[in-house]
Design goal:
about 130 residues, 2 domains, about 80% helix, elongated
Amino acid sequence: MRLAMANKTDEELYDILYVHSGDYTTDALESAREEFVGRKLDASTLGGLCTTTEVLLQREAEPLGWPLRMVAFFFSTLFFGIPVLLAHRHYVEQGAKRKAREWGRWGLIGFAFYVTLSVIMAISPRFIK
């Protein structure tokens, strides 16, 4: 564990300790803390880490725009949902967690819409006669 933390950048250690500490075990946090303290970073470096962290948190919290919500909604069933999965994966890799969640949500809502519409279309000719 100690070797894994030694290979992390200052930003990654700061993120582990102060931003996403709930995502890690106590052993990992202790190893990260030991490594972070051992690096003896100066005040300007710590200030830069805070700024970097704020940018990361803003990126994570950005909502998905309405045009992209509509794209996810209307194209959710295209090619068996593969575009929705690829876009979700893209947002996760970019660190945009909220966008990934919203993209998946709108894709599922669109899928449910099309399934419901298909059922209504299949049933409606029986009632129109």
